[in-house]
## 1
Amino acid sequence: MTSPAYDLWYWPSIQGRGEFVRLFMAAAGIPYRDRARTDDAQALVEDMEAREKSGQFAPYAPPYLVEREMGFAIAQVAHILTWLTDKHDLDSGDPATDLHLIQLQLTITDIVAEVHDTHHPVASGLYFDDQKDAAKRAAKAFREERIPKYFDHFEAALSVKPGPFMVGATWSHVDTSLFQLVEGLRYAFPLRMAAITDDYPKLMACRDAVAEIEGVASYLDSEARIPFNEDGIFRHYEELDAA
Amino acid sequence: MTSPAYDLWYWPSIQGRGEFVRLFMAAAGIPYRDRARTDDAQALVEDMEAREKSGQFAPYAPPYLVEREMGFAIAQVAHILTWLTDKHDLDSGDPATDLHLIQLQLTITDIVAEVHDTHHPVASGLYFDDQKDAAKRAAKAFREERIPKYFDHFEAALSVKPGPFMVGATWSHVDTSLFQLVEGLRYAFPLRMAAITDDYPKLMACRDAVAEIEGVASYLDSEARIPFNEDGIFRHYEELDAA
């Protein structure tokens, strides 16, 4: 048996941004070696430092995917997923649609950064407890203004084609990322999400359809899917949630 | 004379994210109609609403570029620049390098979002004065930790090839965006930028080389380049700057 063509590097203790890559790989059935499960954080730091000092272009931050035969490393979730989509012929077949999918994926990147900033509005390097007051105000604005604005947009986009996925009957990288977004927000803001779920039937149907993709269902049922926790992007703090 | 093939839509009163597109267009000599100079903010809002209701995939936010003949609209700065690079044969000629350039552009997207969050750490919808205390703490962390981390990365990337640009003698979309990043940070954080400029000779040389690209020089000298101001992404508030 040949070893997988790819190595995925990410922090071992969280789902974080790496999870968007894992879900895509699971849906596509692309084998890879998950270095977050075989190596510790120190190994990741050393790999990153070696790349930055290599005299070649290097990732700014994980996750990054390494094509082992070529030694080629690629970072940034939306970029990794776009690259894999193209490489493994998982595109929609229509170039304009593929461009819209990338745009949607980048919009998901934006909301994911905003989710992180709800619990770390002041600085990533400070503890949550040292920015809790700002976090409460940030989370309120995020819950009340930002989630509906983004979700309205995704719901409208999911209305363009028949569904359940963004381009119809076939999943794309946008769908696996929307699944993770909904799952993460349900974990972080259960009261708020329960209150608005009925307003977004197409988004929730997309989430459900992704959960049923064979590779995704197996992955979610495995130990490789580590639970959400309070070190990741999607964190549950009671004081940040409300209906 | 035929009218330009593209319309650029963005907010009229700021450079903002639209400026990254303008600088690229100027460097490439691609003609376009700048709707931020011919139309008001209300026209932009109406155009966005019409697109969201059109039953087609639509931008989440400006800037977006419309290919007039096809009616095709594309949003997200990194995506617009990548698309134009491909369409106008402005790629590096090496596919792996082009992928690294996209990755670098997405890293610029990340720092630009962090710049915005220095003056609006709690919520975009609140006034600066209502989040000034959090902004002071956010700006301190950004000045002291984030700028050096990103700049170290860009300086290392600019050391891969001979310079002055990211891939050598020919500019790419990354260089025009690095120019705007440096210009914006110099406007927002003049004390901090003066203190660290000498640590980043390749980044500053890249900035200077972009300013000398013929189309960029003409653009910067024109009235189309509106000044930085306190409604944009890069804002100067004395209380947020320090060496």
## 2
Amino acid sequence: MTEKKRGKALNLGESRILIAGAASLVGSHTADLLLEAGAREVILLDNFAFGSMDAIAHLVGNPRIKVLRADLMRLPDLLAATENVDGVVHLAAYMTLGFAQTPWQAVDVNIRGAQNMLEACRVNKVGKVVFASSNAVYGYGSGIHGALVENGPFHSEGAPPAAILYGVSKIMGEQLCRQYHQKHGLDYVVLRYSTVYGERQHYRAANSLYIMETYDRVKKGERPLLPGDGKDTKHFVHVSDVARANVAALGSTATDIAVNVSGPEPITTGELVKLVLDYCKSDLQPEVKPDPPDTVRLTSGGAFHIPHELAGREIGWQPEVRMKEGVERLLAWREAQEAG
Amino acid sequence: MTEKKRGKALNLGESRILIAGAASLVGSHTADLLLEAGAREVILLDNFAFGSMDAIAHLVGNPRIKVLRADLMRLPDLLAATENVDGVVHLAAYMTLGFAQTPWQAVDVNIRGAQNMLEACRVNKVGKVVFASSNAVYGYGSGIHGALVENGPFHSEGAPPAAILYGVSKIMGEQLCRQYHQKHGLDYVVLRYSTVYGERQHYRAANSLYIMETYDRVKKGERPLLPGDGKDTKHFVHVSDVARANVAALGSTATDIAVNVSGPEPITTGELVKLVLDYCKSDLQPEVKPDPPDTVRLTSGGAFHIPHELAGREIGWQPEVRMKEGVERLLAWREAQEAG
């Protein structure tokens, strides 16, 4: 057995943790868990371009919470923000839609923004960085099938430019982490989230819209739409599991490694629609909707799944929330919101 | 047979062409060929951070040549430089060594610099952009073997961060071209150069140093060094062939496509050392030099080659200079330099 490289493990009960891109689904759940773990202070950094005060409203006023409006493109802001900080969870990023609509900002934030944050962490000797990456580093298209393991290549055949730009921007962020580790000894863990869903879901992530759109149609009495044959694979992960992975990575001795963070099992789009219909106690039949001829879809080459065993070994994490429970929790939250 | 997409072909005899990163090996040879083809004006843009006036000294004074000191990071400079320009050859980039030593500048130039240039081309309705990419978009390590075809994935297992950063920066440049084509109709051809070598060789590209270093040792009467077993594959392309590919791409109707630009055949490091020894009429025996244990080398998973048939079909180009001739030309130039 080869010796694993070991780095700094934070004692969360004594730590000040900064979350970048905190006013978000993953950010707010991570802050909740850090407070539970006894963190001395949790700094919620966001420029509120996409982040919303709604996502963190329940945290504001807590004496251990500090909300900080700052922008990743201003290194001096980050140098100030990371003073005496023990750990950083770097979530802030544009996704595929951002690379399609606002590619200048997306390049800024995902690459230079990550670089600025790593530089600030180096200067202020931050003990541990958790960098939020994505299964987008495996790419799209015909090459995507079977197990997407951590040392696999990036596929792009047939994918639209914005999706490829997003994927390689995440590869770049990961490699900037590696470079800071090699050059400066900065400890980091890359977590490659699969499609995140859950309570406080926003409407910005293309993939996770699926559950919400189906629910909205069923509530209006319309048949849910099933693009293709309903056999497309999705591999979601519930936001509470993602938050636990972030906290586990901060508290583990793992360093200089990238691990998948995925849910217990993949699901087909057909099964997913069925879960929503079951939740709604609806007997509507899904309507198969062929794609218009010029549609660009982020399809795979066949059934795939995203193993998370490496995360188990490296940071002692495994997912807990199965799709049925997760969809129920998300939709119950949605109903409570509507009931207002 | 499917219809190929067709775009703007420049009539070179009536064109003004801008070369970005022109004070370079590829830039100067491309300018030579454009003058031969009768171009009205050739604008040699460089910030001279790495570019050298030596490389373009033979062109200065030609009334059809304009030397322009400008920086890719200043969009206003590029907006001015591309006014009334018909075609752009975008060469300016940092390579792997740059991503290791100066990652901030490398990110700037390879990503934002490319984006700035594409934006300037959009605004000034430039007819055709040739974007210099690299076989680095196929990556490194165990995944690299056999034919590296244009729709292949990016491999990174075992590669150092700087090499991966360089490779994905080129993927990003390519995809920004695609995005400008899809959004704004900008015509472009991506040329993925393999390892360029030839007269006016600089000492900045890690791979092509091989020929020069072997030559230097032999000239000093020292046995040439052969890392590993001499069976590593290299696939070079002579700079005169690269220059012809640039000109062919400008003059072709090809658009929205990426093609390999590689030499007639790959070569092993052992065969390459032999070519240099033959040129020097030396009977020195290569010395096999095992790598030190912590060496990070950009190796492949086995013999590979980079097919260029797609370039033949798309831009009517194929390489002409075989390794023996190319090495002889390079070393004859080197000897003439030394003779001064």
